[in-house]
Amino acid sequence: MITIEGLCKDYGPRIAIRDLTFEVRQGEVLGFLGPNGAGKTTTMKIITAFMPPTSGRVSVMGFDTVKDSLKARSCIGYLPENNPLYNDLKVESFLAFAAGAKGLKSNRRRERVKEVIQACGLEEVGGRVIGRLSKGFRQRVGLAQALINDPPVLVLDEPTIGLDPKQIYEIRHLIKDVARDRTIVLSSHILPEVSQLCDRVAIINKGGIVAIDRPENLTTGLREHTSITVRVGRDSAEAARVIGAQDGVVKVVPAEDGLLTIDTGRDTDLRPAIVRQLVAADIDVYEITRRDLSLEEIFMRLITEEASDA
Amino acid sequence: MRSLFVKELRLYFTAPIFYAVACVFLIIAGIFFSNAMIRESMFASQIAQYQMNMPVGLTEIVIQPLFDGISLLMLFLVPLFSMRLLAEEKASGTIELLFTYPLTDITLVAAKYLAGLTVLVILIACTGAYMGILAFLSPIDWGVVISSYTGLVLLAGSFLAVGLFASSLTKNQIIAASASFGLILIFWAMGGLSEHLSSGLTSKVITELALLTHLSSFLKGILVLKDAAYYVFFSLFFLALTVSVLESRRWRG
Predict the structure, then answer these.
(1) Which domains, from first to last, does chain A contain?
(2) Domain edges within chain B
């Protein structure tokens, strides 16, 4: 559980984040979405008590990250951007070090190292030097050190950056696995990733939150029309005429091979009505889907709106 | 604290620089030892020849010059040992892990200092072999040997504290090494400066501040509390500076 109130951070004259206020609820996965330089990493570095805010406050599990820094830090597992690791150490000795540094009792350490090695799929590289591991394995080691003290809060800065598609898939799975009983903040600029992993998404741009909501609410909340695509068997011109006669349909655009794109009013779902009309007119329907605005489109829309405001 | 200490030691012994520097140290210390031994034997034969009545003690001719030499070597080598301690963490970004683990800055500095000191003690202890050789040839004054080693470890500890401080200021290891070398040299050179000053308060202060002034009593086999205290406070002073440099991130932002 993380509470952020009126958070500001300046780097000299440059304002990195301004007046950020939001809450990450218990057990929730919150995604930070934003272009490079929007303030994602800065916010995460303040949450993890790596640096202090210029003003405002952050509390993690009820501990203020400045006044109660040590207690706040012991509740957090952090995977920093670029995943810095001790390249000269072996995976096992590094994890043993992390366990000790995070205050695990020595009799628990060995056991816990084994557990995270298993949880993060590091069995085959446990005895290898970190500097010689592939990027995917390095990322797992980074995640393993974050998890070593079984923290209630995880902060992951760009956990899948620079990985190949298979590794991305594996890391996402791993994150989903560990997300079950934890509060997680993760940043990314890969939009599908955020919509897959996160319960809520905060879109941040130029140091401020532009929107924060569930991914599905973001995608429905911002569109002006609901878009429906239909694939019919033959004669799309006839189908277009039939659909166009239906109440609530704003626009019908027929395309090749029987595909039609229909814009309707935003709050109604006309799919059943359209299917009924088409069947009544003896037209075969192969496929009908409602297309939501993708997160990507919303993201671009919000970011560009912001830019035109300024 | 302990796991941090163990990690530092591990990193020391996996990095090639340790072996390179240790190698150079032992070779040069060996040369110093051979020199002293040759001088001793020449001296002894001259005395025998002219039947002079002079002390030909091993302490004055072998042991003291050897420790003088080793203390000079430390001046050059400790900065190379200490440069990576914090600068490397900063350059590789692992400092971000340390700063977000539930560790206090004092623990961090103490663990790094003690790990560095352990390595230096191991290195210094290697020269014990020379004392063994001497003791095998003729009886030696173990009191002097023990007090010299005490002095040497205290001196090395002071150098290390300066080095750790320099390493906290930068992420560039070369700059860290140069800065600590420079700082140590300033405190070293003060000793020479005081000789040319008229006796007065300034001269007294400079003499007392100089690093080497306080070593001579140890090398003579006398344990003076004041001199031991000087090294301890000197080290603590630079360690406290290091802690405040680390803490400055909280208010510098």
Answers:
(1) 2-220 (3.40.50.300), 224-291 (3.30.70.100)
(2) 2-252
